[in-house]
Amino acid sequence: MRRRSAFLAVSAVAATAAITVPSIATSPSHGDTAITSVVVNDGRTVVLGADRRETFRVSVTATDDSGIRSVSPVGVWGPKYGILKVSPMRCVRQSATTSTCTGTVSVDTGRKQVWNDEAGTWFVDAQANANDGDDARSGAAGGFSLKRASRLGVYGLPARAPAGSRATAQGWLSRVWWDSGDYHGSPDDHLQLLFRPDGGDTWTPVADEVTNPLGQVSAGVRLTESGWYRWVFAGSKWTGPARSKAVHVAVR
Questions:
Q1: Separation in Å, CA 91 to CA 88, 99, 204, 206, 231
Q2: Section 125-151 average pLDDT
Q3: What per-residue confidence (pLDDT) applies to 20?
């Protein structure tokens, strides 16, 4: 059995999504203590690249009529026995009854502290402890997405072309292999080819394609006006989003 890490963390990238849990049922609990909110990575999706050390925050808000003494223990777990260790939580009192406690998690993908099959949905395991001895515990107090970083390239379009001619826009989508620290083609993913005319500010889809087993796509386009083309990948449950650079075609 391969070694599983006790540490994991996150790289937040430009195009990410928030997962915030505004209200959580906790079980088991004693008294009126409740965990009311969990925010991971400041509400952004976790996307990890290769050979990097990253850190993210875990914040837990809890309430009790006597006030919150601490939030501990706290851990993070995911698919295939993935585990994250959260640092000691520092609590800030929001009111007489409510506190928000925050800790950090770090991971170094270059040291193989996370594996390919651990991408997906992760959960926070937390216990809130009140001043009067009450407590609330949840093994899935909040959730977030941990994804593999991706890259997307565009090829094949001419710099100049006559009006009405046709060209083929090619693309290649790859995603990181945490197991090996490099990138490989990502198959069966949906990509869009977008076009923006010169002087315009709106990108319009002109083709939808699915990557082949090597992560490649191609789409034929008729060139009627000058402008910019790029491929875009919205991301999936396991893979972060990506977009290629924009390439210009001058139509004469």
A1: 10, 6, 47, 51, 44
A2: 96
A3: 40
- Boundary (domain end) residue, out of 148, 166, 192: 148
State residue 47's pLDDT score: 96
Q: Are residues 141 and 190 in the same domain?
A: no
Same domain for 101 and 209: no
Could you tell me the pLDDT band of residue 195, with boundaries at 50, 70 and 90? very high
Q: Verify that 124 and 77 share a domain, yes or no.
A: yes
Which pLDDT value is given to residue 28? 62
